[in-house]
């Protein structure tokens, strides 16, 4: 009997997927749950497992092809399969009671192939022709995650000359077409689906929205001191690191409550006002920029926010963010400061009407109570859709965030 393996159902916002890589070939033996093929969408990489024990009979769609939901990918023959030289039915008979004198055999340690379970890790190892046995795994039972492969690459890069670095990193994006060996080499690298989708959305935002950006600066002294006093107890009590982002999320929520149009979206000739606060947190991943959504931020504590952001960061590195975690959102925050950006103009994440840009904290001379002193200062940028957001609202929204951060007690007292 043959089982049809089809493309799983895709969300409404995802039209199709690309066959990224087959992990098995026609004629290979499969155990139920074995990774069979990876599908890349414009948001995440989906892993399609084998639905049963069997032999991969036919592959209907090669790697690189675009597929639709429910399209036939392959056929799996399940009538009789052979493992370790023994022929066994697809459904093994129920075992009888084990002899009481027989000691249970210890579970075998996972093989090198079994240790590489994360699809993003498998892809990197295959494309870069790495030896998985040389990569320390930090997952369960020593399994290799995407972050483990990247850490291994970082160690190798320290020993490589700089002129090899570009080609080495480029291979982690996608296969490279060599255009010639000369004193002026070039490489043609196909865009990943994620990067192509990001490019499409950014162009869409520029073409459909009237984007303006307003700036301000915030004195981070109070937040820095508060964080310094309580970060150790916070981590001990809540199991999460107290960063700056939770303060910005809390401040943004209060400012959005005061200026609801900035939490709204344009839909044709209508404006949709959202009565909830789902904030997108821009995260850099090995595949490109992703914006997972932290939902119901008005109902979350500082600890809930920090745990959620940390989880998003880990999932982005491992390529395991789900559709649901990347869909929706009413407002976004992007922190270019972690890369050293001093000032930038963030681009809207459609259909949202605004995005807050954080930047690097730098000690600068400022005037406080008539005296010049050195304070940790950060520039803030708010890009907004001028079709529905007036400049006055945008400026006051940013000032509200500034006031909340310079006097964090306002976040507790809701005094603005």
Description:
This protein has about 425 residues and is an alpha+beta fold. It folds into three domains: about 1-90, RNA polymerase II/Efflux pump adaptor protein, barrel-sandwich hybrid domain (OB fold (Dihydrolipoamide Acetyltransferase, E2P), Beta Barrel), CATH 2.40.50.100; about 130-175, no CATH class; about 195-415, Chloramphenicol acetyltransferase-like domain (Chloramphenicol Acetyltransferase). Helices cover about 30% and strands about 25% of the residues. The chain is built from eleven helices and 23 strands. It has helices spanning about 110-115, 120-125, 145-160, 160-170, 195-210, 220-240, 245-260, 300-320, 325, 390-405, 410-415, and strands at about 1-5, 15-20, 30, 35-40, 45-50, 55-60, 65, 70-75, 80-85, 85-90, 175-180, 185-190, 210-220, 265, 270-275, 280, 285, 290, 295, 330-335, 355-360, 360-370, 370-385. Strands 13, 16, 19, 20, 21, 22 and 23 form a seven-stranded mixed sheet that branches. The protein has a four-stranded antiparallel sheet with strand order 1-8-6-3, with no helix packed on it. A four-stranded antiparallel sheet has the order 5-4-2-7, covered by helices on one side. The longest helix is centred in the middle third of the chain and has 18 residues, at about 220-240. It is globular and about 80 Å long.
